[in-house]
Amino acid sequence: MGVTVDVHEVFKYPIEQVVASFLRKYPNPMDKNVICVKIVEEKKDVSTGIIYRKRIAVCQNVVPEILRKRIAVCQNVVPEILRKVNILKVPNVQLEEESWFNPQERNMAIRSHCLTWTQYASMKEESVFRESIENPNWTESIQKGRISITGAGFLNCVLETFASTFLRQGAQKGIRIMEMLLKEQCGAPLAE
Questions:
Q1: Tell me, what CATH number does 130's domain have?
Q2: Hey, which residues does 187 pair with through a beta bridge?
Q3: Which residues sit opposite 5 in a β-bridge?
Q4: Structural domain contains residue 75
Q5: Number of C-alpha atoms within 13 angstroms, CB side, residue 163?
Q6: Which intervals hold domain PRELI/MSF1 (predicted)?
Q7: Is residue 151 part of a domain?
């Protein structure tokens, strides 16, 4: 089945400032779930000017402790299905993010996916930063995420519902962090 989350935001700052803040967003005390972010590849296409980056984020496992405890208790009752979700007990989750920043066209495309739990879950996100139609000095952000859980039987729906709520809250928290960073580093937003 799967769940999707769509988030749209306009930052009243130029794209160059938004991209710079995005790349510095984590780790951040406002979101303690992101432990670290490492750049594993970065290159610039000299013919197009496009800057490609691949980063790996290490995040705390956010599956609620109570859900993990219930799974552990229930393993005696329904061991076959619940044994499959033992993987939920890992302390950290890794995400891979790839981005393509085109300074000439003033846009950045971002794709990310989860490297952990791949046999039971698919988490993918696609985002775009682009010049706003309303004002060329503003930046429009569009995020689309999808999570699909398989192999956990009746728990698929429960885990997807939790994931949907967590993703929506995480996206909103990410926007607040970006706004704070932009204000700290660039001053007040640009007026209309």
A1: 3.30.530.20
A2: none
A3: 145
A4: yes
A5: 23
A6: 1-190
A7: yes
Cis upstream peptide for 27 (omega within 30°): yes
Residue 28 has what DSSP assignment? B
Nearest to 174 by CA among 14, 4, 59: 59
Largest CA-CA distance found in the chain, in angstroms, rounded: 61
Lay out the sheet containing 34-44: strands in order across. Answer: 3-11, 139-149, 121-131, 107-114, 92-102, 51-60, 34-44
- Count structural domains, the chain: 1
Residue 12 domain boundaries: 2-186
Is residue 191 in some structural domain? no
Render each residue's pLDDT in the chain as its tens digit; 192 residues. 788 889 999 999 999 999 999 999 988 888 888 899 999 999 999 999 999 999 999 988 876 554 555 555 445 544 455 455 565 677 788 999 999 999 999 999 999 998 987 777 888 999 999 999 999 999 999 999 998 888 777 777 877 887 788 788 888 988 999 999 999 999 988 776
Please list, in sequence order, all residues whose beta carbon lies within 8 angstroms of the beta carbon of residue 150, skipping any fewer than 6 positions away: 120, 121, 122, 156
192 within a domain of the structure (yes/no): no
Task: Look up the pTM and report it.
Answer: 0.84
